Amino acid sequence: MNEAADISNTSTHQLLTRRRAGILLHITSLPGAGVVGDLGSDAYRFVDFLVSAGMCVWQILPIGPTMHDNSPYQSNSMYAGNPRLISLEMPQERGWLEETPAAEGKLSDEAKAYAVKLAWEGFKERASEGDQADFQRFSAEQGWWLEDYALFQALRAEEKGCWWDWHKTLRDREPQGLAMARARLKHLIEATKFEQYLFYTQWLSLKHYANERGVLLFGDVPIFVAHDSAEVWAHREFFDLLEDGHPRVVAGVPPDYFSETGQRWGNPLYRWDVMEADGFSFWINRLKVQSTLFDFLRIDHFRGFEAYWEIPATEETAINGHWVKAPGERLFSKLYQALPHLELVAEDLGIITPEVEAMRKAHELPGMKILQFAFSGGADNPYLPFHHTRDSVVYTGTHDNDTTLGWYTSLDDASRGFVDDYLGRSSEVMPWPMIRSALASRANLAIIPMQDVLGLGADHRMNTPGTTEGNWDWRFNWDQIEPDTVERLLHRVSIYGRC
Length: 499
Hints:
Layout: E1 20-24, H1 41-52, E2 57-59, H2 89-93, H3 109-126, H4 129-141, H5 143-159, H6 168-171, H7 175-184, H8 186-212, E3 216-221, H9 230-234, E4 249-253, E5 263-268, H10 272-277, H11 281-293, E6 296-299, E7 307-312, E8 322-325, H12 328-338, E9 344-346, H13 354-362, E10 367-370, E11 392-395, H14 404-410, H15 413-422, H16 432-440, E12 445-449, H17 450-453, H18 485-495
Parallel strand pairs: 1-2, 1-12, 2-3, 3-6, 6-9, 10-11, 11-12
Antiparallel strand pairs: 4-5, 4-7, 7-8
Helix pairs in contact: 4-5, 5-8
């Protein structure tokens, strides 16, 4: 396999051995010709922007295929890449796609999907022997997950519905039914494998480009898996499901800062007893693949590995759930035995108990500090910068927060005055005082959302937890970057000893 498509794990980085700074920007938020950003030239240009600004970390949200709401935290595969992120530049350069699809305005997802199909036909006709062999090697090496995913996608297209509504022979994966489906849908299955070949090749080429320039890719792993996913369909034994495939209970979180009724995510919950009896292979395989795509990973909803919020599937909100213990301590011990170079960050926000904190510290996982959470509750607030520890990642805000300017302008006069006092009533306009505070923090990694770098307000927010509309579609334009932005970032990164 060529260098771009070789997914062997060669990362040896140690995340918090020195001070670093980076930017949070999902791939979909990049500029470009499609309705979302992709892995084409703008992604490489963003790496160059990071380097010029002294930044050495690019944090990205989960990259799996998304569903109707485009949330990267609800994907129909743990292993596949989102085909919306595929760039058409690469197949065009290789001669597999002869024409760029015509479009007025942004290239639609449908037009891009059609172009990828044309690229597949062109690949079969015109690809070199080396490229053909490379594709076959990729398909064989990744077959342990790719075969199920490609068949799952083909059946979803044929059956026009969720897997639990398919014919019983397919829903329950009866061997004869699956064999007939593989034969019937062979061409669509192969096209899906090629789609993933394009994604992996392009992703690892971008990672190689970033790493060569000293930029590390920081990924994100959701704790739960979407119900309508290849993994739940293929491995029902690991999930708490009824006989017909519907969940008995679902995941979420209780009422908190973000929502008065909590968040009912709807993901099926794990059968941890079955996973543990199997040696946690489900999680080892998952993180092994993700650690080939990223240099280090954020584990979303870390507290759910110590205890998770179980909601009866019949409930419409998360209010009537309860906490259930999980075997997180044993899981992480097993993960580090199997993957000793694994680099993880714990998303330890929300209701964090002493047991959760002890589990994080026992495995030396960095935690998160959000500056937007720091200015309430007095001097004991753990998010205030003087409480930060080196084994932390500090953020002005995350993808779930308002932009820092939006947050600041929403405060009442007294709260805004306290923020100004704490930050020294800087002559700089918000959000730059918060950016400076993050970079000055003792935390060895500081991450700034791109919206804050651009000084954007609340109408540029990425996600509002507990809502299902108007999220995940924010993008920036290169002309939004002020002429002095690179210099301002580079100066602050330098004086605070980062990168």
